[in-house]
Request: fold
Amino acid sequence: MTEESLSVRSLTWRDTTLINICDNSLIGKTLSEGKLKMHISPAYFGGKLVDDSEALKMMKESSIINLAGEKAVQIAVANHLGHKEAIKMIQGVPFLMIYKFGL
Reply:
């Protein structure tokens, strides 16, 4: 896979699956804006490299989704998993957190 790939780290506990997905090119970078500082650490976001369709499948199957990067966030918004108004920009990089609550 290439830098255009998405990096995914997945954790499952009981009936909950949490995934962290980011644009692979962001791994290891530190972003800051004002007092806010975000490190895209390999330990948190680094993992399996996937393409867009596999990332979307994983997003649909997960309960909690943490996204970083233009490509990762765009996939979620384009597929109505998150809303563009919920996106937080840090140094021009979009971040989005999605929590799916069941009944």
Remarks:
- The chain has three helices and eight strands.
- The helical segments are 42-45, 52-61, 70-78.
